Amino acid sequence: MSSPEQVAVCAIAVSKVVSTIEGDLSILDAVSLEINAGESVAIVGESGSGKTTLLGILAGLDIPSSGQVWFEGNDITAMNEEQRAQVRAASVGFVFQSFQLLDSLNALENVMLPGELRGDGAVRKEATAILKRVGLGNRITHYPRQLSGGEQQRVALARAFASKPSVLFADEPTGNLDTRTGEDIIDLLFEMNREFNTTLILVTHDKKLADRCDRSLVLSAGSLVFESRDVEPGSGGSINSVEQTGL
Amino acid sequence: MKPTLLLSLLWRDWRSGELSLLLSALVVAVTTVVTISLFVDRLQSALIAESSTVLGADRLISGSVPIPGSFTRAASDYGLLQSNTISFSSMVFAGNLNQLVAVKAVQKNYPLRGSIHTSQQAFGPVNIQTSGPERGEVWMDSRLFPALAIRPGDSVAVGEAEFVAQRAIIQEPGRGTSFMDLAPRLLMHIDDIDKTRVVQPGSRISYTVLLRGSEENLQKLHTQLSAELNTRFRWRSVRDSAPSIRSSLDRAENFLLLGGLLSVLLAGVAVALSARRYAFRHFDHVAILKTLGATPGQIQKGFIALLVVLGTIATVLGLLGGGLLHFVMLFALQSYLPGDLPAPGFGPFVLGVVTGFICLFSFALPPLFDLKEISPMRVIRRDLDVSQRSKILSYGCATVGSLTLLVWYSGSLKLTLYTLVGFASVMIVFGGLSLLLLRTSHVVGTRASSFVRLALANLQRHYKGTVVQILTFSIAIMMLLILILLRTALIEEWRSQVPENAPDHFVMNISTHDVTAVQQLLEKNTYYKGQLFPMTRGRVVRVNDISATQWENLSAGDGAGVPPLRGERNLSWTHELPLNNQVVAGQWWANDEPKHYVSVEESYALAAGLSLGDRLQVDIGGIFVSAVIRNIRKVNWESMQPNFFILFSPSTVTEISATYMTSFHLGKRGKQFLNELLNQYPTVSVLEIDRVIEQIQSIISRVSQAIELILVLVLASGSMVLIASIQAGSDERLREHALLRALGGSKGLIRGALLVEFMVLGFSAGFIATVGAELSVAVLQSQVFRLDSQLHPWIWLIGPLMGLITVTMVGMFGTRHLVATPPITVLRNL
Ligand SMILES: Nc1ncnc2c1ncn2[C@@H]1O[C@H](COP(=O)(O)OP(=O)(O)O)[C@@H](O)[C@H]1O
Ligand SMILES: [Mg+2]
Predict the structure, then answer these.
(1) Among partner residues B18, B293, B377, which is closest to A114 by beta-carbon distance?
(2) Given pLDDT bands bounded at 50, 70 and 90, which one contains residue B607?
């Protein structure tokens, strides 16, 4: 086991049950995991297996029905929404399948937004720089609807890294993109991840993409069935032994 | 959130058009309130000013002893203009002829409001005088000139003094509708009273001081004097003096109030709808902001601040707009309004500001509060909805907000209560009816053509939204219908108060043997219906076993606006209860009742403390008649008909020789006929009320104009609601229809489906609105406006049709781009 300072995110017996018209539906069933700082971890599984739900809970966007989630040494399941929001503002970045840019803001304004929310000054320079970094230096005043899907996802990446998060959550970031563009985005994602030394938690159903992470967690019907360590050299981070969790 | 960030978010929202509907709904709310209240404010002061000319002053204080110096000093302290008058009965002599007259001695500055219409000849062309007669001259009613066989400029005597009868009075202030008891008028200068020597200790004299000044100061004076006024002096405003004008004003005020009220509610609904849409469109934005670390507190503060900024902008625009619009209205109504309208007060502007913010916070804030509750998970799962708690909060806020507005705005709990009860019950019925209508349209739908089926399927699929939309439309249409119905009822009522060809002249004192000849003359020259009333003059001398004087001292009742028991007055007798009279206690007598009975008017009985079974002894020219009070009558004084305080059963007065009175309509036929009549029958006297009728009609027509204008304003806020409501539903329509077009639906199909959809919505809303309007109007008419209510068959046609046409038009207009733009643009923008 790693020492607590090294652990970025830790889930203890996390379950999620939602009530529907047909009765209670169990989406996650006692999921436990530990992700160390600087690691890149893929969560894989079939569509509907609960990946997104798990990601949301790990990131503090949602709360589990039972179990705990510790984020950098704090139990975020015990926090209220206000406090969780502060944690997100300080340490979390997101990239979503559907980009989630604000339509009414242009590229630059979208990237500046997290800094503005935190009340930082002089966010403009940094935002401009990072937009250049993702290759959109000449598109900074364009609105989302004037940008292609790949370009929108680049803006989303720029926004995610602009706040220098310690953990980046990505939910099928290439799901809405063609293969070629998807690969470009993933290259960019991993490059920046290394540059900013961010912990990466990536949800995907793409085996090739999962292989680029340090290790993969496999979800099936709401349970973690398998954890694999990938031994690709040079990917950095600590290496865990293969172990069986859950069923 | 930092204010700069907030402002830039607001600015970005504005730039993208997100805020324009909410802002315009708010601006319309404030504008409507400001316009209506400014206009009502100024119209009221104009009406009061105009009505004051009826009184000759803003207020009167009168009593049977001289007005104390403390009163006049207090009035001076408040900076009020004053003018004293003294009234008494006397005889006027010319040669060997004489007439009983009602003398009014006035100061030079009489009247303080309005003018005296006089003429150089009896019944001649009008000359307007703004001050009273000089010393040494008198002005007299036209009818006195033929009666005394003189012309203006000849001399007459009152008591021991000689005067020049300078002018004929055509119309004077203070001659309201209680004309029946008045002898013809003689105006003289107040300083001439002494030399007539007719005013002796013990004579019946009425002292009056006329007051003119600001409403505020007048009311302060009233408050200060109220304790002393009670016993011996009466404080009178135009409302006490001219009942027909009073009730017109009251009803008009109520109506304008109601109009304002309804338009505020409508605007509130529009604000709520557009705020809901704004919030709805921001669910995703807020979810994104939350994933980026915005806290619920930041979101909430941010949106409150946004509302404050928005409210301030809307209020400023609304105040400007309202001010401007009211000038436009004044300009449009120029010819109907007096030239020197008093400047508007601050009240309407304050009202506008407060209304704007109450609207904003009770209708717009709750939906925005929902935003705080949005789960950031919505970023990944869009169907996550708002918790039930905030919905309750939202409806609660809107209810409390509207209640506050209603009570505060109407200042009348009663009006508010009726409006609310009507509103609530109609809403419940509406909901049920809408669901019912949706079900029946299903049956029709299965065998209809493709776009009809598409439209009906659409309506049924979103049946909750459909019901809400039908309700919203119904409310808007219902309010319009209510106002239209009430307006019609009010104006009809006013018209019927002074029907066409209603008598505008009375002929009194026709002796028995002249009756047929006079009637023939009238038939030839006027519009004459031939009604005849026997009449004589007399005074009550005893009640039961005590003298009338004693009785009056014993039972000082509530006598505002009612003549004293003992005064000499016109008496009449009849077998049948006269028109416009209603027995409120006791019974009307049988056709050939042998017993000696008398009937007295309600307020007169109340003031004199008379009740059923009391015995009245009346002195009629030296003959004493005694009768028991058999019934008490309510008299409609607003009707320009001969009305009597005291009526006898015919058997009571067999020994009395009567003269007769009749009435005719002269209209524009020319006053010269009056001279002809009076020359042929010098003993009869003519009473003109055509000027009074004219005055009432002019006030009524102005008020009707105002009411129509209010209707236009309410129409504007009603359309706003329609637009907001269609906008609110248009996102979903947009998406679905774009999808349909992407799937191959033709423009024609979409347009047809939309058309049918709006027609069904509009027709249902119109039908429901009609039901609601009929119910509400029935209640309002009987409870607030005190009018008879009846069904209105025509609105059952107009209502649904109006709904169908307006909703379809506004709807098709509001969704025109939906059909015109390529589907991909629509899909991408969502
Ligand atoms: N709030 C909810 N209500 C009902 N069902 C839900 C809810 N959230 C998730 N689900 C269901 O739980 C399952 C897992 O969803 P999700 O986490 O999105 O899976 P994945 O991202 O692996 O495709 C799906 O079947 C989804 O429909
Ligand atoms: Mg998913």
Answers:
(1) B293
(2) confident
Contact A117 B5 (CB under 8 A): yes
What ipTM, to 2 d.p.? 0.80
pTM above 0.80?
no
Query: CB of A164 within 8 Å of any CB in chain B?
Result: no
Q: Please state which CATH number belongs to domain A4-243.
A: 3.40.50.300
Cβ under 8 Å to B: A residues 168-187:
171
Nearest CA to ligand 1 atom 10: A27
Parallel, antiparallel or unpaired: strands B597-601 and B623-635 = parallel
Closest CA to A9 of A157, A165, A113, A115: A165
Indicate the average pLDDT of chain B: 79
Query: Residue B224 domain-assigned?
Result: no
Query: Does some domain include residue B235?
Result: no
Nearest to A52 among B1, B2, B380 (CB): B380
B561 plus B454 within the same structural domain: no
DSSP characters over B680-743: H-TT-EEEE-HHHHHHHHHHHHHHHHHHHHHHHHHHHHHHHHHHHHHHHHHHHHHHHHHHHHHT
Quote the minimal CA–CA distance from A109 to chain B in Å.
10
Ligand 2 center to B147 CA (angstroms): 106
Among partner residues A86, A94, A105, which is closest to B291 by beta-carbon distance?
A94
DSSP one-letter string for B102-161: EEEEE-TT--SSS-EEEESSTT---EEESS-PPTTEEEEETTHHHHHT--TTSEEEETTE
Which ligand 1 atom sits closest to the C-alpha of A54?
Answer: 17
**Which one of B361, B378, B411 terminates a domain?**
B411
**How far is it, in rounded angstroms, from Cα B830 to Cα B814?**
17
Tell me the pLDDT tens digit for each residue of B378-427: 777 666 565 555 667 777 777 787 777 777 766 667 767 776 777 677 77
